[in-house]
Amino acid sequence: MQNQKVVLITGGARRVGAVVARHLHAQGMRIAIHYRNSAKDAQALCDELNHKRANSAIAMAADLNDIAALPQIINTVQMTWGQLDVLINNASSFYPTPLGTVNEKQWDDLFASNLKAPFFLAQAAAPLLTKQQGCIINMVDIRARQPLKDFSVYCTAKAGLVMLTRSLAKELAPAVRVNGIAPGVVLWPDDEQEVDEATRNRILARTPLKRAGTPHDIAKAVDFLVNHGDYLTGEIIAVDGGRSLSF
Q1: Do the beta carbons of residue 124 and residue 68 sit within 8 Å?
Q2: In angstroms, rounded to a whole number, what is the distance separating the alpha carbons of residues 88 and 23?
Q3: Which tens digits make up the pLDDT trace of 134-168?
Q4: CA nearest to 85, candidates 224, 227, 221
Q5: Whether residue 154 lies in the annotated active site
Q6: Rounded Cα–Cα distance for residues 69 and 58 (Å)
Q7: Domain for residue 46, yes or no?
Q8: Could you say which of 35, 95, 154, 231 is catalytic?
Q9: Considering only CA atoms, which of 114, 120, 122 is closest in space to residue 160?
Q10: How far is it, in rounded angstroms, from Cα 213 to Cα 23?
Q11: How many domains does the chain have?
Q12: In terms of C-beta density within 10 A (0-12 exposed, 13-18 middle, 19 or more buried), how is residue 224 classed?
């Protein structure tokens, strides 16, 4: 029997989000792919999934900085399939903000995608998720516990997302489970100059499993929380090869 759950993934057009989308779709779930600028990637992924199973995927453009527009994302999912079972807050802005250079626009942008939008999307989705006894999964970061130099605004926003995860778990219990996943190194930045080979080797040397993970490791953690984590809420699962043990 197919799994007919409906899943909304923010930032679902590329990288980890796209891998999660394909993984859950392969189980029979219907996927709503949110994107901001990746229209070509989002449409290609949507076409790929619909080719495998008709009317099983939609793509929606939205700027997560525009909080007033977020309820429409939820409304579109409801109008398409009449339900929402899983909200995955995956979209994330990530760039350095060295102290002394930070401006308000950077602060607002990093907090919008990493903290503010997840809250307002959860608020808008809560009635549908409650009806379905569904769940929310927030993509956090192991750096929410241990700050990364020159990334103070990003790390602070992710730390806030940890508290939001725990707070929503209380607010929405017992109907909706809310958990987070904190990836370690599962995908290097697109810009290879941002993390050079020497830095990569140094990071992996400090990781107990001595290797990078993959986006599929995150997809499998999402799978567990959606399908098997019935008695789990308010938790953050680190999928990091043990790297956070040294923090």
Answers
A1: no
A2: 13
A3: 999 999 999 999 999 999 999 999 999 999 999 99
A4: 227
A5: yes
A6: 17
A7: yes
A8: 154
A9: 114
A10: 16
A11: 1
A12: middle
What six digits make up the tokens of 105? 């626009």
HEC string of the chain equals CCCCCEEEECCCCCHHHHHHHHHHHCCCCEEEEEECCCHHHHHHHHHHHHHHCCCCEEEEECCCCCHHHHHHHHHHHHHHHCCCCEEEECCCCCCCCCCCCCCHHHHHHHHHHHHHHHHHHHHHHHHHHHHHCCEEEEECCHHHCCCCCCCHHHHHHHHHHHHHHHHHHHHHCCCCEEEEEEECCCCCCCCCCCCCHHHHHHHHHCCCCCCCCCHHHHHHHHHHHHHCCCCCCCCEEEECCCHHHHC
Distance CA 131, CA 147 (A): 38
1 part of a folded domain: no
Q: How many CB atoms lie within 10 A of CB 102?
A: 14
Q: Please answer whether residues 20 and 222 qualify as being in contact, where contact means their C-beta atoms are separated by less than 8 angstroms.
A: yes
Is 163 a domain residue? yes
Residue carrying structure tokens 């499993």 = 209
In a domain, 70, yes or no: yes
Query: What confidence tier does 1 reach under pLDDT thresholds 50, 70, 90?
Result: very low
Per residue in 167-193, is it b (16+ CB within 10 Å) or e — as a string?
Answer: ebbeebeeebbbbbbbbbbbeeeeeee
**Residue range(s) defining the domain that contains residue 176:** 6-238
Q: What is the CATH number of the domain that holds 165?
A: 3.40.50.720
Of 79, 171, 67, nearest in space to 118 by CA: 67
pLDDT in tens, 6-45: 999 999 999 999 999 999 999 999 999 999 999 999 999 9
